[in-house]
Write a structure and sequence with these properties.
homodimer, 252 residues, mainly alpha, Arc Repressor Mutant, subunit A, Tetracycline Repressor, domain 2, 2 domains, two-stranded antiparallel sheet, 11 helices, 4 strands, DNA-binding
DNA sequence: AGCAAAATGATCGAGATAGTACATTTGGCC
DNA sequence: GGCCAAATGTACTATCTCGATCATTTTGCT
């Protein structure tokens, strides 16, 4: 099986064998990079659909323009392929996030956009969400081994930290905000909205995933996050010095 | 392999072979119910740990006081066992929830307790959470087939609906609150907190899962939910009639 | 052109795994 | 006690699945 030169630079990964790509056919040649990318994109889809144990190397191979031989040649074994696929999925998603530049916006506006963006972005990348779900099932053992992924996420936090700091300085956000905790809140809503859609729909119907209801949920999410970040409208009676959280009666 | 009479009524599922149970040994006998329960509890643990494809029937069998033969005898095949295990996991968790009686409390207090309870309860039942995660990976195909589970969840919503209605009537909650949407918000935080702990910890460290930080997150969650339910302190400029949500600028 | 290393093709094997066949024991009932 | 159906034990197999082996082609380089 052969590849067009620079096939890897094509964006339409899912095309059929023999489809035009818009790239000139200037002879055919070995193309290791394209082979790897081809394998990875198929692997992401397959692992995301069926999980680590559920995915079949043979199935991945057959959906590839290359052979199983190549999978083992480049990735060693199934777990190696999985790990690289996980990294690739992260990379692709973080790329999308990198385009978001919020530095010129006022902090509240920046945070609003960040939350809304994350919500939408997760929704547009279900395979990524599923990869993370699967990784959680496996106790993040493979992710823990990937320095690449940790670095990328720390970068994401930096962005949020910057917003928090600016907000504090301008006096619109409360002091001592923990960017990681805020990220947790943002992720919880955005992630759950995709990850648990199947069971939620099965039980309560698809209503919450229609356009109107999703719009509503997204807005609620944005507002909740902003409320957490904002200086409390009502002065808290006690402030927990350790975590910067308002301490109020929360039952039990 | 033989069973004590009424062994199924014992609460300590995880005990070793031959351990005392507090139940008098009054002879040994066939005990189909105990066998089924034994298999199910092992199955939940195994499926929760390794997923549907990752779980091994032989492993389940070996951790059971009975044999693989019995698994197929009572549950037909692996998928049958999985489905029953899923139901059993739901049942166990909903049982815990049923004990919660909130009808005598004022709506805000009831909602506060419900949220806090859900947060804690999910945390105490990671196997259940993992089963749901796995079911989501499989697009809820098996859950969809289980009427039992749908019924139980509808019951849970009823509880929330009652609180919402009372809150509306007493004028402390906004009108047109959607109990399912509220349930979504509660679940998102409570579920994510358990489901994504491994990846989150791997990336950002375990800090957020220490007692102090968890306390803080739980409180933030409670407050966010209450804020959503409460009548807005600031009158909304526009109200979306379809969903009952405030419409404000939420960015793109 | 010729050579060595990288890349790829075709086929096969070992072990794991779900599920089964057959035999045996137990327990309620007469 | 004897009988039959439910329950359980033992051993086996067909198949699926990962991974390896051996052979061949392509390519960069001199």
């Amino acid at each position: 099986m052969y590849y067009l030169d620079h096939f890897a630079s094509g964006t339409d990964i899912g095309m059929e064998n023999g489809m035009k790509t818009g790239i000139e056919r200037r002879g055919w040649t070995q193309n290791p990079e394209a082979v790897k990318q081809d394998i990875l994109s198929v692997a992401i889809s397959e692992f995301a659909s069926n999980g680590l144990s559920g995915a079949r190397v043979d199935t991945i191979a057959s959906r590839t323009r290359t052979s199983k031989r190549m999978i083992y040649y480049y990735f060693g074994d199934k777990l190696g392929l999985y790990t690289r696929a996980l990294e690739a999925a992260y990379l692709k998603v973080r790329e999308g996030e990198a385009a978001l530049n919020l530095d010129h916006l006022p902090p509240e506006e920046a945070l609003t956009r960040l939350v809304a963006f994350t919500f939408d972005h997760h929704k547009k990348n279900p395979d990524f969400i599923r990869m993370v779900m699967i990784e959680n099932i496996h106790n993040a053992e493979n992710l823990a081994a990937s320095q690449v992924i940790r670095d990328m996420n720390m970068a994401a936090i930096e962005k949020l930290a910057t917003i928090c700091r600016r907000g504090e300085e301008e006096g619109v956000f409360r002091k001592g905000l923990d960017p990681v905790a805020l990220h947790w809140q943002i992720s919880a809503a955005s992630f759950f909205n995709v990850s648990n859609r199947p069971t939620f729909s099965a039980i309560f119907g698809a209503g919450l995933f229609g356009d109107d209801a999703q719009e509503c949920i997204r807005r609620q999410t944005v507002e909740s996050i902003l409320a957490i970040a904002a200086k409390s409208r009502v002065e808290p009676k006690i402030t927990d010095r350790r975590s910067g959280c308002d301490v109020a009666d929360a039952g039990d």
